[in-house]
Amino acid sequence: MQSNPSDIDRTITELEDIIATLKSPANRSRAIAEGIDIDRELVRLEEELQQVLAQRYASLSPWEKTVLARHKDRPYSLDYVRLIFDEFFELWGDRLANNDEAVIGGLARLNGEPVVVIGQQKGRDLKERQRRNFGSARAEGFRKALRLAKLAEKFHKPLISFIDTAGAAADLRAEEHGVSEAIARNLREVALLRTPILIAVIGEGGSGGALGMAVGDRILMLEHAIYSVISPEGCAAILWHDKSQSPEAQREKTAQAADALKLTAQNALRLGVVDEVLPEPVGGAHRDPVAMAATIKNALCSHLGELCRLSADELVDARYRRFRKLGAWAEQED
Amino acid sequence: MPRNGWFSRRSRTARVMESVPDGIATKCVKCNEILFARDFERNLKVCPKCGHHHRLNARERLAITVDEGSFVAMDEGLTSLDPLGFPEYAEKFQRACANTGQTEAILTGTAAIESHPCVIGVADFSFMGGSMGSVVGERIARAMETGLERRLPVVMFTASGGARMQEGLLALMQMAKTAAAAGKLDRAGVPYIVVLTDPTTGGVYASYACLGDIILAEPGAIVGFAGRRVANQDMGTRLPDNFQTSEFQAEHGMVDRIIPRKEIRPALANLLSFFAEGNGHAI
After folding, report:
1. Which A residues 222-281 touch B at CB under 8 Å?
2. Are residues B228 and B101 part of one domain?
3. Mutate to test the interface with B, among A193, A217, A316, A323 (most CBs of B within 10 A)
4. Are residues B153 and B16 in the same domain?
5. Residues of A with CB below 8 A from B87's CB?
6. Is the ipTM of this complex over 0.90?
7. 3-state secondary structure of B214
């Protein structure tokens, strides 16, 4: 499976190519010379493209959503930070040992109101990806996030967290520095943090690494984002582990695993794990980051408006109950 | 077969094992030493030759840990559902119940250890790899809340491969649930003691297992985040031999003490008495 979501449908790619070709100055002047009404033609094609996109993206499979959520052009945390907030003053480091660049954070203003922002940050080019460990935080990243969360609590500022990671780092250094302890501590401390917390799952919500920064009062998720206990690849390997399979068969199994895991935003909403699914621009967030950012900003403002009316005790109680009730079980009297 | 195959320990063991009736002898999974079942049981399933701590199921663990007859189970009526309709989950679950005689991958309840009352949870790796689904998370949270209400110390024996994949996101959320409940204990000053046993990994290690006031571990247990196979894919780094063991975690400051199985019960009794007694006024 290609990572380019335009391959989700060949028709879309073809239409986009035709439109791009017609738009080039050379072709344009030639068409005008030949008496073709190119602008009308372009409008017609754009409309057709929008229709095809809308139809296609309304029925993406869980695996197609996975591909889209991981797409290299999808806006990352810092893109949204720049588009949503009036200003952003980045803060580095965990004040213990390191500055893990898989996690970003700092002080920002949302419609003029001071907030603390944290986020998981993938990289655009190879160099940045390596610097940010492909968005997979180590212990230092989770500790940096917790330091900033505590800063928000201390100064009674709301905390906003953007989630986008394939998972926490699982290498030797992560293990040596206690990545499990750092995630566990975040879960415990942020559950009881005495300030409003908003979470936005913008791309990949990969397992414990995502959850380590995703405990909050309201959890928002973009329409095509994913959130899962394990990657479809990992799930397929555990369930149907067979090295002899052809790459095509393995891809098929991975897509089946994505189905089984029900990792879509729509399912997360059904399970009560997220509170709201934010619609993406037609064809996905990467086609119109500005519009996507505006949608996220609106949602953040409206939820924050509600949360800011609650006392710290009420917030912490409601948050505890929110996570406490998650799960599915039957109960008979002992 | 290796050239000296006939002389290897494995084949010698195999030949001896064949000549012994079932149930009398067993074999150390680590060093292959043949052990008389009676001696092995008496040694709490620790190999007398190499010291390897074999896995215990929840009932066996309870039997060697708490005062006889003191355990009162809680929340046994909680049973798992199949919220995602996940392939083969229902069958695997039924098989785990039948094979282990348990209803889930953890037992929780109240008990006494050398007369010190506590709330105790004992994970069972033999039940679907000890994986944490909704019921496991719920039993842990309720156990911790019982500890909170009655101000009883909470002791958790962990053994798990992590979150239960078959319950998807709801399993992942049990990490947040158990950690939040541990947070309540923390804020209320109710002691929380963890004993890491083989294996404790993934979402369980990265949630309630890492949050004890005191964290003990059995020797040689696999304890870590993502498993050696995953970490090994990181090219260029050579993993130490003890990677993701109790000893590795202790070396990196994540474990308070590594304690051999035989000494865990007295160690727990000692800790429970330490936290229960005194406020310094008598000094």
Report:
1. 227-230, 235, 238-239, 260-263, 267-268, 271, 273
2. yes
3. A323
4. no
5. 239, 260
6. yes
7. strand
Per residue in A38-64, pLDDT tens? Answer: 888 889 988 988 888 898 899 999 999
Q: What are the strands, taking DSSP E only, across B92-152?
A: 106-113, 116-123
Give B123's strand partners: B106
Query: Rounded distance, CA A297 to CA A110, Å?
Result: 8
Q: 3-state DSSP call for residue A130?
A: helix
Fold that domain A67-324 belongs to in CATH: 2-enoyl-CoA Hydratase; Chain A, domain 1 (3.90.226)
Domain span at residue B27 reads 1-54
In a domain, B283, yes or no: no
The rounded distance, in Å, linking the Cα atoms of B86 and B163 is: 14
Query: Which H helix or E strand runs over B157?
Result: strand B154-160
Report the number of distinct structural domains present in chain B: 2
DSSP A82: H
Same domain, B112 and B192: yes
| pLDDT score at A31 | 81
A175-209 burial, b at 16+ Cβ within 10 Å, e below that, comes to bbbbbbbbbbbbbbbbbbbebbbbbbbbbbbbbbb
- Identify all chain A residues contacting B141, using CB atoms and an 8 Å cutoff: 324
B172 at interface of A, judged by CB pairs closer than 8 A: yes
Same domain, B212 and B248: yes
Q: Is residue B282 part of a domain?
A: no
Please report residues of A whose CB lies closer than 8 A to that of B169. 227-229, 262-263, 267-268, 271, 273
- Report the C-alpha gap between B133 and B113 in whole angstroms: 28
Residues B101 and B221 in one domain: yes
Contact B203 A229 (CB under 8 A): yes
- Confidence band for A277, pLDDT divided at 50, 70 and 90: very high
B77 plus B134 within the same structural domain = yes
Whether residues B150 and B178 fall in one domain: yes
Nearest CB to A334 within list B77, B133, B243: B77
A327 in reach of chain B (CB within 8 A) = yes
pLDDT band for A3, please (50, 70, 90 cuts): very low
